C-alpha cells in the first residue's frame, strides 16, 4: 500500500482555521495562510518575531492574560475577543505544549454582528411592546420591566427592580396569584386575571400571562405580560346592568299594566262607598285611598321607565317646567319648612318630552325635600352651556349620600325611605339619558347633595 508522505504543516495550511505556533519566547515559529490573511501581516513580518512586539495592543487585551495562563498552568483555553485595530471578533483556542503554544482562531465577526442584531430585535420587541412585559427570578423578584410596565403601575423601573410582585397585588387576589406563579415556576404557562394597586392607590384589573424562562433546559425565572382590562371590566358590568334593567323594565311594564285596571275599579268603588256611607269612620277610607294613590304612583313610574311612551320630542321651555313643578310641590315644601329658591338665566328652548322632564324635576325636588326632615333650602339654578345645551343644578342642604350608597342609586327599588319606591332616580337617569344628557351627583354626608343635569339643546347633536 502506498502512503503519501505529507508535511504536517501542509495540512495546517489547508485547514480553514487560522493557525500559528509560538515558541517559549513568544516568537512565531509557524503561521498558516489563513492566519496571515486575518492578521493582515505577511510571513516575513511574523516569523521569528515576538507576538507582543508585532501586536503591542494585544498586551492590554485578555489575550495576553490567557496566553500566559495557558503556558503557566499548561491548560488549553477557549475564548472570544474583539480586536480594536483589526475591528474583528475572534474565537481563539490555545493549546500549550512543551515547546510553546499552538493557537487556532476564527473570524466570528459576522456571527457576532447577526447575534447582536437578533438581540436588538428581541430587545425592541420587549422595550417597545405596548403590553407591559417584565421578568422575575424564581422567587418573584423583578429582573426587568419595560416602559409599558412603568406606565401601567406608575412605578419607575429602578423602584420595580427592588420589588417582588407580591406587594403590588391586592390582598384579596394574592393567594390566587401566588398559586398561578408557582405553576409558572414549575414550567406551565399561566393565563389569569388579577388586581394590582397602582402607585397612586387605584386598583387596576389585569389580564396576565406568565411564561417560564428556560435557559439550557432549566427554568431560571418567569416572564410576565400584563394588560389593563379595567375598562373592559367596567363595560362588561355596565352591559350586565343594562341587560338587567331591560329585563326589569319589561317585567315592570307588564306588572304595572296588570295592576292598573283592577286598581281603577277599586278606586272608583271606594269613592262610591265614601259618598254613600258618610257615617262610617272615613279615616280608614282615607288611608285606603292614600295607599291606592301610592300604588298608582308606583305603577306610573314603572310604566315611564319601561316604555318609550308615545310622546313626541318638541322644543320646550325648561324654565316653565321647573316653575310648574315648584308650584306643584309648593305645599309639600311648605309642610317640611323647605324654601325653594329658583335662579334661572334666560335659557334656550330644548328639544325634549316635557312630561318626562317634569317627572325628572318632580323626582329630584321631592328627594331634596325628603332629604331635609328639619327644613332647609333648595337652590335650583340653570345656565346655558355654549350653544349646545343647558346645565340645571338642584342643590339641597339635606342628609347627603354616603359613597357606598351613591354607587347603588339608580338601582331599581333601592331606597332608604320607609315609604320610598326606589324608582325615582332610576327613572330620572333613564329619561335624561334618552334626552342625550347626563346626570352627575355630588354629595357630602350631613351637608347636602348637588344634582347636576346636562341637557343638549337637541339630543341628536350629541
Ligand atoms: P326613593 O325616593 O323612593 O327612595 P329614589 O330612587 O328617588 O327612591 O332615591 C333612592 C335613594 O337615593 C333614596 O332612598 C335616598 O336614600 C337617596 N337619595 C336620592 N336623592 C337624595 C338627596 N337629594 N339627598 C339624600 N339622599 C338622596
Ligand atoms: Mg325619590
Structure explained in plain terms:
The chain is of the alpha+beta class and 462 residues long. The protein folds into 4 domains: 8-112, PAS domain (Beta-Lactamase, 2-Layer Sandwich), CATH 3.30.450; 129-228, Beta-Lactamase, CATH 3.30.450.20; 233-306; 314-456, Histidine kinase-like ATPase, C-terminal domain (Heat Shock Protein 90, 2-Layer Sandwich), CATH 3.30.565.10. The chain is built from 16 helices and 17 strands. It has helices at 8-14, 33-39, 43-46, 51-54, 62-73, 109-127, 147-153, 157-160, 174-185, 230-276, 282-306, 318-328, 330-335, 354-370, 403-406, 424-434; strands spanning 18-23, 28-31, 77-83, 88-97, 100-107, 132-136, 142-145, 190-197, 203-215, 218-228, 314-316, 338-344, 350-352, 376-385, 389-395, 438-444, 448-456. The strands form 4 sheets. The chain has a 5-stranded antiparallel beta sheet, with helices on both faces. The chain has a 5-stranded antiparallel beta sheet with strand order 7-6-10-9-8, with helices on both faces. A 5-stranded mixed beta sheet has the order 12-14-15-17-16. Helix 10 packs antiparallel against helix 11 (282-306). The N and C termini lie far apart (101 Å). The protein binds adenosine-5'-diphosphate and magnesium ion (MG).
Named CATH topology of the largest domain: Heat Shock Protein 90
* Count of strand segments: 17
* CATH top level assignment of the largest domain: Alpha Beta
Helix count from the secondary structure assignment: 16
What distance separates the N and C termini? 101 Å
Dominant shape: rod-shaped
Query: What is the CATH homologous superfamily assignment of the largest domain?
Result: Histidine kinase-like ATPase, C-terminal domain
**Heterogens:** adenosine-5'-diphosphate, magnesium ion
Question: Which CATH architecture of the largest domain is right?
Answer: 2-Layer Sandwich
Strand order of the largest sheet: 2-1-5-4-3
Structural class: alpha+beta
Helix content: 40-55%
- Total domain units: 4
Largest sheet: 5 strands, antiparallel
Radius of gyration from the alpha-carbon trace, in angstroms: 42 Å
Mean pLDDT: 87
Report low-confidence residues grouped into runs of 5 or more.
none
Q: Could you tell me the strand content as a percent range?
A: 25-35%
